[in-house]
């Protein structure tokens, strides 16, 4: 997606060896025009699929998922909350996730009320690194007995393992921009 790639090259900032900060347009301040175009691009990529629900994870995924939902006939958005699941709770699906950016483990939690076995779910997230957030969401959808139509990612870091791990499980991954490498603080896109 050209507009997104231009924006990453113009305003993305490489911090640490392998983290891209896109706070000025995606993750902190939000550019609504860009979000609309991201959503339209997801619709183009998944146009032949009837999506009944969009699943993401708080916080950065929510706005992207909501914009995308407008393109998919207002399919409801469900976002996994990050917390500590009480293992005794029968009201929630939960899955343990290792956070790439924070280096800690948390539970992704979704109320059983909001996922149905008849759902055809599009998983959306802002970044794909080692795939742990998406795999947590996949696990939750499987617990609900629902179907996964595919995974939509805004920025994939192609040098990390996420895509391979998700594709190995048989799911389709669509990324709107793929980072090939960070070199001397610069972003190299595919
Ligand atoms: P994964 O679970 O695929 O290892 O990492 C994806 C999650 O970590 C995303 O939900 C995103 O919030 C965060 N993340 C991973 N890499 C980056 C990055 O380079 N920049 C930002 N802003 N977030 C990232």
Blueprint of the fold:
Blueprint: H1 2-11, E1 13-15, E2 19-21, H2 23-27, H3 32-45, E3 53-57, H4 60-71, E4 77-83, E5 92-98, E6 105-111, E7 120-128, H5 132-144, E8 147-157, H6 162-168, E9 173-183, E10 186-189
Parallel strand pairs: 3-4, 3-7, 7-8, 8-9
Antiparallel strand pairs: 1-2, 4-6, 5-6, 9-10
Helix pairs in contact: 3-4
The structure holds guanosine-5'-monophosphate.
Guanosine-5'-monophosphate binds next to strand 2, strand 7 and helix 5.
Task: Describe this protein's structure.
With 190 residues, this protein is α/β, with parallel strands linked by helices. The protein has one domain: Rossmann fold. The chain contains six helices and ten strands; from the N terminus they run H-E-E-H-H-E-H-E-E-E-E-H-E-H-E-E. It binds guanosine-5'-monophosphate. 5-phospho-alpha-D-ribose 1-diphosphate binds at residues 129-133. Its main location: cytoplasm.
What compounds sit in this structure? Answer: guanosine-5'-monophosphate
Count of separate DSSP helical elements: 6
Helix content: 25-40%
Terminal Cα span: 11 Å
Strand order of the largest sheet: 5-6-4-3-7-8-9-10
> What gyration radius follows from the Cα positions, in whole Å?
16 Å
CATH topology: Rossmann fold
Element-level helix/strand string: HEEHHEHEEEEHEHEE
Query: Which structural class is indicated by helix and strand composition?
Result: alpha/beta
Total number of domains: 1
The proportion of strand residues reads 35-45%
Number of strands: 10
- Report the uncertain regions: none
> CATH top level?
Alpha Beta
Strand count, sense and closure of the main sheet? 8 strands, mixed
- Average pLDDT works out at 96
What CATH architecture label applies?
3-Layer(aba) Sandwich
């Amino acid at each position: 997606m050209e507009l997104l790639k231009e924006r990453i090259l113009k305003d993305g900032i490489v911090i640490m060896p392998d983290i891209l900060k896109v706070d000025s347009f995606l993750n902190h301040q939000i550019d609504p025009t860009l979000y609309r175009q991201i959503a339209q691009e997801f619709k183009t990529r998944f146009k032949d699929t009837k999506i009944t629900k969009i699943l993401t994870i708080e916080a950065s995924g929510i706005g992207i998922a909501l914009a995308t939902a407008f393109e998919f006939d207002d399919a409801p958005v469900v976002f996994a909350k990050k917390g500590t699941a009480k293992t005794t709770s029968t009201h929630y699906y939960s899955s343990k996730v290792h956070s790439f950016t924070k280096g800690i483990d948390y539970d992704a939690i979704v109320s059983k009320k909001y996922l149905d076995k008849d759902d055809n779910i599009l998983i959306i997230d802002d970044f794909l690194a080692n795939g742990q957030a998406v795999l947590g969401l996949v696990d939750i959808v499987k617990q609900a007995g629902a179907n996964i139509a595919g995974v939509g990612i805004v920025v994939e870091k192609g040098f990390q393992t996420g895509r391979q791990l998700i594709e190995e499980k048989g799911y389709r991954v669509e990324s709107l921009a793929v980072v090939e490498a960070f070199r001397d603080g610069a972003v190299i896109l595919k």
